[in-house]
Amino acid sequence: MNDKNTQTINNNDIMTLAEIANYLRLSEKTILRMIKANKIPVTKLANRWRFMRTVIDEWLAPRMRAVSEKNLVGIINVAKHPIPLSQLITPARIILDMKPGSKESILSKLVEPLRRTGILADSEAFTKKLVERENIISTAIGHGVAAPHVRDSKENNVRKLAIVLGICKKGTNFHSLDGHKTYVFGLVCSNSEDVQLRLMAKLSLLLRKPDVIRMLRRAKNKQEVITLLTATDRKIGIRK
Q: What CATH architecture does domain 67-235 belong to?
């Protein structure tokens, strides 16, 4: 990083070791090991490590995309009690007619079924945390799919484990990592980090198939959506 570039950087974009550790939810020792192994972009200013937020976000993006199907299945099946998807996505938590719009409007629409059914203790606070998470890096993982979630699952304050599935047939700009429109949103609602990770892995594995996205966009009713997801779940061999 040269002096000319440094002068144009907003101070809020530069993070210390402690800040990057909190940002990535890793210990400072782990970050230092990554620095030593040249596994994370970093520079030294006044003999102290400094990290640029935008560079870190760009570095994170391909790593978030490069999860193999084998690894996803491993994450899903690691628990003693695998999660039955059909019990988490109910007709009351499916939105078939989402309209294109801003991130805030999309997220508010996804939160509404959770508010209406009393699953969330504070829907406004939950929506705010979802927006904050999106401001770090988009949860639109590509292939027309986004999996919105709060950064720290312990802050969810939810009364029940649930997933909201939203379908935007025309697609909308959700700042996807691959630059394309997003059509299907799977909002994960859990106060357990392990469960949240497994649900996101399961959704990613199910929805990464182009034919599934096409069929979801063509679904005429909520039961078609549930039938399709259940059949796809069985087809790829994930334990119920």
A: 3-Layer(aba) Sandwich (3.40)
